[in-house]
Specification:
- It is built from twelve helices and nine strands.
- By secondary structure, the protein is an alpha/beta fold.
- The protein has one domain.
- Helix 7 runs parallel beside helix 12 and helix 8 packs across helix 12.
- The chain has a nine-stranded mixed sheet with strand order 7-6-5-4-3-2-1-8-9.
- The longest helix is centred in the last third of the chain and has 23 residues.
- About 35% of the residues lie in helices and about 15% in strands.
- Strand 3, helix 4 and strand 4 form a beta-alpha-beta unit.
- The two termini are about 15 Å apart.
């Protein structure tokens, strides 16, 4: 699918043609192991398991209506039970060791026959190999970016460039995709929400049924009101006079890259923000200049 040629004559933004596999969460969702399903029925859910037959056996038709997606952890070898089950239900593959385990992604290509598939992986040394393979297999990608080391900024920048401009990349990469669209439309967007780490939107439930804050916040004391954690965290950074006070990207970041280390140097991630802002401005101008090319949609 072809992307539009930019009005300023730059490289085409192929990101315009990508469609979200799993939209960012907008209402409270519980990320639960399948063993806790009975307790959380009726809530909006992400259900995880390393055992596909267990998911098929325990999730009934009524449960499917409340599922955001299912997550396969530990990359189980046999997923045949899922291929023709719950068609169109999104599946997320958790790749905890991307540099080592990325060849395993080949075995899950058949899931695409009936399901949108996304790979979630941490940004660690060698992550870009897994991203390239996932995209070539037509899987979407979600990067657990955390506070990336300086050495990882260049591969992140190259991954962003591929997402924006490479015609062979037809699937979205988060957080890039949702942030680009929010900036293009000039709509409020939250990096904490895109990354599924806002306690107001996601709660993580362990095997024993204990609820925790999501992602990197796991195990911390959220204070008296976890629903307001992101707001309080951002306000605290501003009150301290942190570099956030002068950052043009604060509204969408709210100190995301200052957790857990307040002294994290944001120079590298600001470079990524700047690239996305420039792309959003170009895309907005390009769309205003005329109708999109056939087959291109912004969503």
């Amino acid at each position: 699918m072809q992307g539009r040629r930019l009005a300023n004559g730059g490289r085409p933004l192929h990101a315009t043609a990508k469609t979200l596999v799993i939209p960012p969460v907008s209402h409270l969702v519980y990320h639960i192991p399948v063993a806790q399903l009975a307790r959380y029925r009726g809530h909006r859910l992400i259900v995880r398991s390393a055992n596909p037959p267990q998911l098929v056996g325990q999730l009934g038709a009524d449960d499917l209506d409340n599922l955001a997606y299912i997550q396969l952890c530990s990359l189980p070898s046999d997923t045949d039970d899922l291929i023709h089950w719950a068609e169109a239900l999104a599946i997320e593959l958790r790749l905890d060791e991307p540099a080592r385990d990325f060849p395993l992604l080949y075995r899950y290509a058949k899931l695409l026959d009936n399901h949108p598939v996304r790979v979630v992986l941490p940004v660690v040394t060698g992550f870009e190999k897994a991203v390239k393979l996932a995209l070539s297999l037509q899987f979407a990608v979600r990067l657990e970016i955390g506070q990336p080391e300086r050495a990882l900024i260049e591969p992140l920048a190259q991954t962003l460039d591929d997402y924006l401009h490479r015609s062979t990349v037809s699937q979205p990469i988060e957080y890039f995709h949702s942030l680009l669209l929010g900036l293009c439309h000039r709509e409020p967007v939250s990096l904490w929400a895109i990354q599924e780490e806002d306690p107001a939107l996601v709660r993580y439930v362990d095997e024993q049924g204990q609820e925790w804050l999501p992602g990197r916040l796991d195990g911390i004391d959220p204070g008296s009101e976890p629903m307001g954690f992101v707001e309080r965290w951002g306000d605290g950074l501003l009150a301290e006079g942190a570099e956030c006070a002068h950052c043009p990207h604060f509204d969408c970041c709210r100190g995301y890259f200052k957790w857990p280390r307040r002294d994290y140097d944001c120079d590298g991630v600001r470079r990524l923000f700047q690239t996305l802002e420039q792309a959003a401005d170009e895309l907005r101008g390009d769309l205003a200049a005329g109708p999109p090319a056939p087959g291109v949609k912004l969503q």
